[in-house]
Amino acid sequence: MSHSAVTILTWSLVTGIAMAKSTLTVEQSIAMSLLVYAGSAQLAALPLIAVGAPIWVILTTSFMVNLRFVIFSLGLQAHFYYLSTWRRILLGYFTTDFSYLNHIKRFPKPETKEQLANDKEHLRLYSMMGFQTANWVYWQVGAITGILLASQIPNDWGLEFAGAVALVVIIGPMLDRNSARWAAVTAGAVAVMTYGIPFRLNIILAVCAALFVGMILDKSPKAGAIP
Amino acid sequence: MSDDETMAMVYLIIGMTVMTFVARSFFILLGNRIKISEWGLETIRYAPLAALIAILAPEIFLPVGASSIAEFSLRTPNIWGGIAAMIAFYFTKKMIPTLVIGMAVYTAARFWFI
């Protein structure tokens, strides 16, 4: 299995267990996993649901946690602007951290008009849909397994930490140059320092700070910025 | 759970699903009405990296269930497990050794710090 697959399975399993151990029922947990399909937003919502926070607070938090996808959607637009409205909406919905990451790694630059005209088989679109399908299947298998087996798994195994360790393996190879390393250090420091702020806004603050640092340090990026 | 609470959960799940749709298809929805400059695309190239780190860093450097940086403590097992995982990855570049060493140090640190 690829590193992405292992990491997705670990995070989804942890997310599934967290949902099942929260105030949600099994049916609600499975419905949330299948429909919402945004692990970090789900995890941020659980403690809010448990304390009975108003629905607008939970929805605002969901959107704020998802703000990073708004930035990804800019990159997606450059690659897939030519599709029909429905295909664009669906392509957007299924674009997770991992499918976007893998797509940009494989195709750092959008196709030019000529390349697009010659690409009769829509190789890039089907490549992306392949990443998305694999991501969706791995996520739901892990999440639903976690939901159903949660009562069998003791709290003190520390399984939730395995997701963090697996993510280290994904991030490591991306730190192949100084600008990326400084962007990463910035993102980490900002995310930790501002962790307590409302609506989990620390994520988007960290992303913006890292983009700023990356932009300043990497005036002449090589082709294929993300290895 | 009462009927009211059940309905509230149904609305919440629908609402969160809409939030996923809105956030993820935000700019792609505009189709060919906008054209992002090469500069713009270069600026966001570290966005996926930064997003993963923004999710990961608090999991490693803050205690489980912490609500802010004020709860930072070196007696947090996550920190030592995380650092061990980073060192293991640096030398092996492989998933399994990183997972085994990271989890082993994390587990040892949890017993150490009790």
Characterization of this structure:
The complex is a heterodimer of chains A (227) and B (114). Chain A is an all-alpha fold and 227 residues long. Chain A has two domains: 3-170, no CATH class; 175-227, no CATH class. Chain A is built from twelve helices and no strands. In chain A, helix 1 (3-20) runs antiparallel to helix 10 (160-171). Chain A is globular. The two termini of chain A are 19 Å apart. The model of chain A has no long low-confidence stretch (mean pLDDT 92). With 114 residues, chain B is mostly helical. Chain B has a domain at 53-114. Chain B is 68% helix and 0% strand. Chain B has helices spanning 3-24, 38-43, 47-61, 77-92, 95-112. In chain B, helix 4 packs antiparallel against helix 5. The model of chain B has no long low-confidence stretch (mean pLDDT 93). The interface between A and B is large, with 99 and 74 residues.
Binned strand content of chain B: under 5%
Give the overall silhouette of chain A. globular
Q: What's the helix count of chain A?
A: 12
Largest sheet of chain A: none
Uncertain runs of chain A are none
Question: How far from one another are the termini of chain A?
Answer: 19 Å
What descriptive keywords fit this protein?
heterodimer, A: 227 residues, mainly alpha, 71% helix, 0% strand, globular, B: 114 residues, 5 helices, flat
